Amino acid sequence: MDSTGSRAEGTFSVDSTVRGASARGFAAFRREWESQLGGGFRMPAFSPATTGDFRVRSCGTRMRDVAIINLHGVSAVEAAGSSHCAEDLVRMHVVRRGTLRVGEVREHADGTVSAGRFLIRFFKRAPRYELVRHTTVKFLFLPASTLTPLLGNRMISGSTDSAEMRLLLAHTNLVHENASDLGPAGVQAARDALVELVKAVALRQFDDVEPLLAPALALAAKELADTHLTEPGLSTAMLARELNVSMRTLQRAFAATGEPVTTYIRRRRLEQARLALTSPTGPPDISDLAARWQFADSSHFIRTFKKHYGQTPTEYTRSTRTADR
Q1: C-alpha 136: how far from chain center
Q2: What is the mean pLDDT of residues 278-292?
Q3: How many domains does the chain have?
Q4: How would DSSP label each residue in 290-306?
Q5: Residue 155 gets which letter from DSSP?
């Protein structure tokens, strides 16, 4: 497989869920896959039922000898495996919503991977798989030569809630967002970090001082913080504990973003409070708003809000209503 590309060697995005797009959706998906990922990553043979009603949102990125495909199927998706074409890839399936059934996985009952779970295994040949309707899955294609010494013939499965999986998923999000802007060194670094994080998932531990992983660690912490903004226990210590790193390591990762952990938490709480002030049903009571977003009291909330936005909450609400009129 060619590893000499100077950029992320291919990226694509296809949405055939919009009205009228499903008829040509599969053709667009095939065209994008073959032009952007083709060569090292063979597109599976999909069933006629799938190609006839192909309502999916999908994006993909290839970085040398690895590829990431995100797919959300509004319709069901079924792909036949290959019994004659050697593939020699480690595949990782991460299901965020719905259900994925993977063929040739006897150790895993019927091969079902449910929402919030992942499966990693070396496949000599491409497996069959089925996605039930409204399934969201991430496929990772990885070099067997790098990972089979660690995996052997084992299948590894687990929850997406582990610290290692949080970092891996955050890293894949960063890759999709920034792939088209990466130069040769960036492509190599992103590829290497992806492989290291898959190894970390397999080993259930990661090197928390590895500089390559710092961007993924910061993003994983932000994503985790965003789900706990209303909780009084949200703190640097809580995030570090959930991500299985030291507070110092987490603070170093955030330092590279130019915003300390506590500043990020306060900013996101203020953003959510500001949105609440523009609710169509009318702004909530200031005391209730302060309590929900974990400010000490209404006075503290008002001072902090004005320092950040240049207006008190009441002034902000009045100004937005005037602008709407």
Answers
A1: 11
A2: 90
A3: 3
A4: HHHTT-SSHHHHHHHHH
A5: -
Q: What is the pLDDT of residues 220-273, one digit of tens each?
A: 999 999 999 999 999 999 999 999 999 999 999 999 999 999 999 999 999 999
Strand partners, 70: 59, 138
- Distance, C-alpha 155 to centroid of its chain: 22
Domain range enclosing 216: 161-229
Query: What is the helix (H) or strand (E) element at residue 239, kind and residue range?
Result: helix 236-242
CATH of the domain at 277: 1.10.10.60
- In contact, 67 and 131? CB cutoff 8 Å: no
What is the DSSP secondary structure assignment for residue 213, as one 8-state letter?
G
Q: What is the mean pLDDT of residues 187-213?
A: 89
Average pLDDT of the chain to the nearest whole number: 88
Flag whether pLDDT at 108 surpasses 60.
no
Q: 3-class SS at 5?
A: coil
- Burial profile 166-200: b = 16 or more Cβ within 10 angstroms, e = fewer: bbbbbbbbbbbeebeebeeebbebbbbbbbbbbbb
The two structure tokens encoding residue 221: 């912490």
